[in-house]
TrEMBL record:
Catalyzed reaction equations: A + NADPH + H(+) = AH2 + NADP(+)
GO biological process: response to toxic substance
Name of the protein in question: NADPH dehydrogenase
NCBIfam families xrefs: PRK13523.1 (NF010047)
Subunit (UniProt): Homotetramer.
Amino acid sequence: MAKLFTPFSVKGVTFKNRIVMSPMCMYSCHREDGMVEDWHRTHYTSRAVGQAGLIIVEATAVTPQGRISPQDLGIWSDDHVAGLKELTGLVKEHGTAIGIQLAHAGRKAVLEGEILAPSALAFNEKSKTPKEMTKADIEETIEAFKKGAQRAKEAGFDVIELHGAHGYLINEFLSPLSNQRTDEYGGSAENRYRFLREIIDAVKTVWDGPLFVRVSANDYTEGGLTVEDYIPLAKWMKDQGVDLIDVSSGAVVPARINVYPGYQVKFAETIREGAGIATSAVGLITSGIQAEEILQNERADLVLIGREFLRDPYWPRTAAKELGVEIEAPKQYERGWR
Ligand code: FNR
């Protein structure tokens, strides 16, 4: 049996296989209120019918100011729960687990009005200069992540992932390139980690299910973080009860990335070995054979598929055929699945 199609269990939740749909913003809240719309219902449910083990719903903003764009999904108010609950129901109906990525865009928000960051440094010459967050801003944002987690629980999500990657707010605190604070939230690694530490602690007061954190394991810039810097951070996360590190890279500052098949797998492997924590690999993983190699060589525990899942909602079936494995079909498709 291919390892790709073996189950993975964490904190009492079992994914039927190790194929995860990577979180991908759909920018489809056309009313600009962060509410689930028909697109989300169709898009995510299609991948559940396609037999993903876990779907991680796109970056979902914990405050209106924390959206990347006005069309982002939101979880900043109780009004968001009903639509998200409908979505979890639609996906779970097909035996697929569903997670949500809780996010705050920080200085990468492209919105009217004030935007927030650890330091008043713009991402690039075209972007707005953010306001340096006060202690009160920090406390409010931590509370917003906690409330987001509470609502995610009410909506029936199986997994919460904190978005600590791609140069959004949590990542901006972690990296010395974007965090030049002189208080207890800046300077040493412990201090730059403090914001994430406090978010994890706050989330854990309302959430005892599987908790993932997505990180950017390489800033690809001198003076920035490398995968080695993430090993102690991953150990701290593990000590705090984080179950899995979802290992991505880049985008905290503009930098060129050398992209090739599996370009981030090595980072997932290094963190898995160095910190003794489960990881997921993501980034240009497109074939079943490639995914199977990553799992069999214990380089990661789960494989996340992004763009290939956009091209092929039935990617698990495609991968199973490639690996010579027969997987269950939705019963309505049994006559045409193989
Ligand atoms: C993304 N990605 C992404 N990552 C994330 O952590 N949260 C998000 O909301 C998004 N949004 C998003 C939208 C779209 C349209 C794309 C293509 C990508 C990154 C994504 O999850 C994944 O890490 C990368 O696309 C690399 O994996 P693939 O696509 O090579 O499998």
